[in-house]
Amino acid sequence: MTAPKEMKEEFPILKRNVHGKQLIYLDSSATTQKPQQVLDALRHFYTTSNANVHRVVHTLGEEATALYEQTRKKVADFVRASTEEIVFTRGTTDSINMLACMLESSVQPDDEVMISAMEHHSNLIPWQQLCKRRNAKLVVVGMNQEYEIDPADLKAKLSEKTKIVSFVHVSHVLGVINPVRELIKIIRNKNKEARIVVDGAQAVAHLAVDVKSIDCDFYVFSAHKMYGPTGVGVLYGKKALLDKLEPASFGGGMITSVSFEKSTWLDSPHKFEPGTPNIADVIAFGTAIDFMQRDDVKKAQEQEKDLIKLAHAELSKLSSVTILGPKDCSKRSGLIAFTVKDLHPHDVATGLDQYGVAVRAGHHCAMPLHKKLGIDASTRMSFAVYNTKEDVKTTLEALKKTIAALKK
Ligand code: PMP
Predict the structure, then answer these.
(1) How many angstroms does the Cα of residue 375 sit away from the middle of ligand 1?
(2) Which candidate, 135, 115, 193, places its Cα nearest to that of 159?
(3) Torsions phi, psi of 165, nearest 5?
(4) What is the SS3 assignment for 292-338?
(5) pLDDT digits over 64-117, tens only?
(6) What contacts 374, CB < 8 A, 6 or more positions away?
(7) pTM for the full model?
(8) Max Cα-Cα span within the chain
(9) Residue 199 Cβ < 6 Å to ligand 1
(10) Which domains does the chain have, with CATH numbers?
């Protein structure tokens, strides 16, 4: 079994030097790096089994189809769903846009679609545009003092007009883990008809997710934030709901019959996956899930909590630094964003880059949240299983030097 410290060895890119320094990658909330076995899976597929999937009888086609469908099973098991409930998409953004399109007809003029104040633009704009098309209202739920979605505000704003509620599991800026089960209970108690979407983009690589116990209607996430390739996402939906929904796009591979007058669809998930899917990347995503289920990787995932505590404690010692999000680290997952008094986050990130440390700076696709916090931008460090305490310590030293140099 690999010790967490040796986990880095499995990620070839982490051997890189940046500005003559050993790379410390703290931008995994944007995208994680990929372990060798995922890189190998991509190459292996293209060199041994490459063919189109479904409706094929030749050997390569059957192999490709089996591997593609095996990933669906792995994803289903990973989030405790069944295979008919797992639709492959291009990513979280694509999954949400598909939902906004497929749920559109349930929204009438003056109806309401509800999101929270901390949403990524990808879980805001698709709903905003849906409201614009349907003359409906976008309602925004606020945060409590611990920066969670405020249950009291949610309760107060829900009504029979609420048709869709879509909110994030783990915030990509505040790092807060929202109490999704409790929030969903509140919604179901007040409005049984509202469809509930959870954006799990920042949760799946850090927390055990059980969509059945969460009791959401839909749960969406991206493979590239889970050690898998870019260009693959997941839309989980309760089977009974997917059965009723019309697809958002149409074409080959999704039909039972076609005539010039009328077409009929296969069952879910195939009716939602027209055209040639992203076969190789889906298959390599299956390998990423195998990676995530190794005991040592799960252990390293547990240890991310210590990295957050350490980074939080060290950042708190710096008088010019303000940390965004909850003070209680047990409410956090994956990341810490902060501001430095009188310094622009881009300058801080550029300064850290000189020490080989990769962090993200900007509004992180959450302009309304930053506005609510009274800032334009922030710097974010985010963690994954390949990060160590040494990474955090080196980064904090680099941050102190950067602040000192910029404040001169
Ligand atoms: N939601 C959240 C919370 C995110 O962090 C992200 C990615 N930063 C997205 C949605 C969008 O994911 P993608 O770019 O993979 O579609």
Answers:
(1) 21
(2) 193
(3) -125, 125
(4) HCCHHHHHHHHHHHHHHHHHHHHHHCCCCEEECCCCCHHHECCEEEE
(5) 999 999 999 999 999 999 999 999 999 999 999 999 999 999 999 999 999 999
(6) none
(7) 0.97
(8) 73
(9) yes
(10) 4-33+295-406 (3.90.1150.10), 40-292 (3.40.640.10)
